[in-house]
Amino acid sequence: MHNSFHIFFKAVLLLVLLIIFTFCVPQKKIKYLQKSQSHDTNSFYGNKRTFDYKIQPKDNLYIRIFSLDEKTFMFFNKQSSGGGYNDLANDATIYLNSYSVNNEGYIDFPVVGKVFVKDLTVDQVKNLLQQSINEYLNEITVVVKMVNFNVTFVGEVNRPGQYKIYQDEITIFEALSMAGDLTDFANRNKVALIRATKDGSKVFYLDLTSDNILNSQFYYLMPNDIIYISPLRIKQWGFAVFPYAIVFAAISTALLLINYFK
Question: Which CATH superfamily is domain 60-146 in?
């Protein structure tokens, strides 16, 4: 009888341990940038660092004209109700003081008039405005920025939501850090990047566990990219962190029962 209980509790203990180890998320599914065979001895990853987003209708451009002449400065630059620099400190004011690209691809700029900016990069728009204004005024500096450079994270991230990017380019890992990184249950092998194109939205799947992402054309994000991270199947019953307390409790209980029935 005692021998039967001894065997029974050993079997239960073994089953508990097997379940716990089986349902833990392995480290290989969590680590980023794991070396691929083609990069075993390579530490250099080539990737073209150019921001070549083409302006499209409904985009918003923040344009500032700087001049030593105060009247010229005030004439060209849109001002909020307060009229000061501090009013440009929040997103809503920046948006309201930006220039919207209409359906035909034009912006309406003071003195210059309608300027066709569709399919131009931000730098090309800047140069075009600079040349146009130079015909009327001297010693003018033009600054152009994208207002609607947003990146959205949904799914298995710690802080899902839409994030505004205040720089010309950003990598997928830099953007992930803004969203608090992926959760332990995120499927890093198949991250969906949803990108708007002229023909509609396209979905591209990225493997963040492979160092090949550093050479990928999707390493740098574009305005209005949406990144969806699906959960691992193990999430519904798995453990992200090894449950030491459960293991020790199970072992202790099993040992106590075995000793009791000896």
Answer: wza like domain (3.30.1950.10)
